[in-house]
Write a sequence for this structure.
């Protein structure tokens, strides 16, 4: 039972729901490489992101259960974390090399198509032909770099995946026992707060406007990437009137390794 994967299924209307709603406006986004400009970044919405509004601090509950459990949570060995980081960097290098090779190959095709429309005596033909020859050499070099980066990436993965999966099993088994009572504790905490759990999902623009009863909440969400996850557990106070604005992005997130 991973903390990030815990989906709350707690139903029932509590007394606070009759007080009238406030609203929370959530915007979720992250920066990704610009496919049209090498080295540039663009902002993209995180669509279909599940956002939970929890009337207590879920991290505090997990921390309390962890402290009360007789055996400590198994730690991820530092060398395994370092190996994962090395693999992530190798994968990024391979993907960048593949993108550079693909872009060079596309340009070669564009030049080739245009050359077919020109007379060899034209100056434009000579210019493009010279560019084609230069780029052809560059593309061949880029392909070698791509293949070498891929070999490095796959080589680093050998042995790592088995160790990672074994570590996952150990941690999941510990969590299943340590957090066996989590739903009961969550239900009791919600009852104590007198507030409901509220769950919503961002739209295609990474936005949601959610009705929430006035009170103290924590905005919980996570977004899993290849080797890390963005984790949010942000306290807010909801009142009637103007919506509370919450931004879920890498700047407001805790970045954690995925195991």
């Amino acid at each position: 039972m991973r903390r990030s994967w815990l989906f709350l299924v707690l139903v029932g209307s509590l007394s606070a729901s009759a007080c009238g709603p406030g609203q929370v406006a959530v915007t979720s986004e992250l920066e990704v490489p610009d496919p049209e400009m090498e080295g540039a970044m663009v902002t993209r919405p995180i669509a279909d992101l599940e956002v939970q509004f929890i009337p207590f601090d879920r991290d505090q509950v997990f921390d309390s259960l962890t402290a009360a459990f007789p055996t400590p949570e198994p730690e991820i060995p530092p060398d395994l974390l370092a190996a994962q980081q090395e693999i992530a960097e190798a994968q990024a290098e391979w993907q960048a090399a593949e993108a550079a090779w693909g872009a060079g190959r596309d340009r070669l095709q564009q030049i080739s198509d245009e050359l077919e429309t020109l007379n060899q005596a034209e100056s434009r033909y000579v210019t493009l032909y010279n560019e084609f020859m230069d780029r052809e050499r560059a593309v061949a070099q880029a392909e070698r770099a791509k293949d070498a980066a891929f070999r490095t990436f796959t080589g680093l993965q050998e042995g790592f995946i088995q160790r990672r999966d074994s570590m996952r099993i150990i941690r999941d088994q510990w969590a299943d026992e340590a957090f066996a009572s989590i739903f009961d504790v969550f239900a009791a905490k919600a009852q104590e707060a007198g507030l409901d759990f509220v769950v919503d999902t961002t739209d295609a623009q990474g936005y949601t406007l959610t009705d929430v009863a006035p009170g103290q909440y924590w905005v919980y969400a996570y977004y899993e990437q290849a080797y890390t996850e963005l984790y949010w557990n942000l306290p807010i106070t909801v009142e009637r009137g103007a919506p509370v604005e919450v931004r879920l992005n890498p700047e407001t997130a805790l970045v954690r390794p995925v195991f």
Summary: The CA atoms of residues 69 and 177 lie 9 Å apart.
